[in-house]
Amino acid sequence: MTGTVLLTLGRLPKGLDLARSFARAGGRVLVADPHRRHLVGASRSVARSFQVAPPAESPARYLDDLAAIIARENVDLVLPVSEEILYVSALHGRVDPRVRVFAMPQAELLALHDKAGFVDVARAAGLNVPDSAIGGTPASASISATGDVIVKPRHGCAGGGVRRFKAGAPIDAGPDDVVQRFVPGAERSACALAHEGVMQGCAIYRGFVMSGTVAVAFERVDDPPILRWVEAFVAATRFTGFISFDFIVDDAGTPWGIECNPRLTSGVHFMMTQDLAPAIMQSRQQVRLRPERRLQQFWACLTETQGRFGQWPAFRRNLANLFRTPDVTWSASDPWPLIGMPWTAWPIISASRARRVSFGEAASRDILWREEGGAVASGSAWPSARSAA
Length: 389
Known about the structure:
Elements: E1 4-7, H1 13-24, E2 28-33, E3 46-51, H2 59-72, E4 77-79, H3 85-88, E5 100-101, H4 106-113, H5 115-124, E6 132-134, H6 138-145, E7 149-153, E8 163-165, E9 177-181, E10 186-195, E11 198-211, E12 214-220, H7 224-237, E13 241-249, E14 255-261, H8 273-281, E15 294-296, H9 298-307, H10 312-324, H11 336-339, H12 341-344, H13 346-355, H14 359-364, H15 383-388
Parallel strand pairs: 1-2, 1-4, 2-3, 4-5
Antiparallel strand pairs: 6-9, 7-8, 7-9, 10-11, 10-13, 11-12, 12-15, 13-14
């Protein structure tokens, strides 16, 4: 029995997969989002939507808003969709114990969201990660002196603020940055669902149409070494929930974990929609992968194609993809999320234009974790990983 499910974000396509899955399983699906209108709210799978405070601007009000909805609507399951999980996880202990909050405790999520903390956890589990250190330390100076490095914010998202420096070059990095050894190779991503350290499903993919640093068209790939890496990490941390990773695969085929997103990512689109709700509700349920190898976010890919006009090889490649690749939101029985996206996404589109930032940045700025505004301090150790070391 699925009961009443509250999705804590409605603006992103991955939330639509969850809404459709739970509605198909007989659940009553509610959505909470700081925006009054949003993509998932246009779906026939959703019974009702609620506007809540933006978590990055007012974490306390956001949690109060969610708690009020949970109590008033008799919610059984709270299901985070994206970066807002770092705030939603603070609901543990704040709501009726019968309510399941589908997130690990906040301190453990923050330890993985911290790119320095993730490296420590992965290294303790015996997994391949590049040499990394917090900026401004002797260790970071040593790494940068002997090879090319990547510098990125410890709590960054979607590739924002990532910079590359040549070996020995002066680098601008402080305690809020991670300095990481540059590993040449192919970029890969993975999105997995797990229960108490046992993986229920995992999609490995790469982006092939990009909007800035964010992929808007994806191709699923088979990579057994990455699959084994993810399985080992999940087992070492006894992780429950959705968890995602970015990798570099070197010329020898070895995957190097470069960062962790302890949340859902676009890889969920490769999972069978009808399997998601049963797997979330039943720990033994496995998630199958869709037969499609390529998927796209149509409107975002259309924008990227238009932007390539005049750059003929890239334009022709994007145009061919636009008409040959299935859209992640389209359903003949539930067409309005795709058809109505220009209207439901207008708050994001207008913010993107006004601030001259990418659509992805505009879509996430009010849900990103902010250390100074968070519900608890980050940097907590991950006890399961320590014991597994």
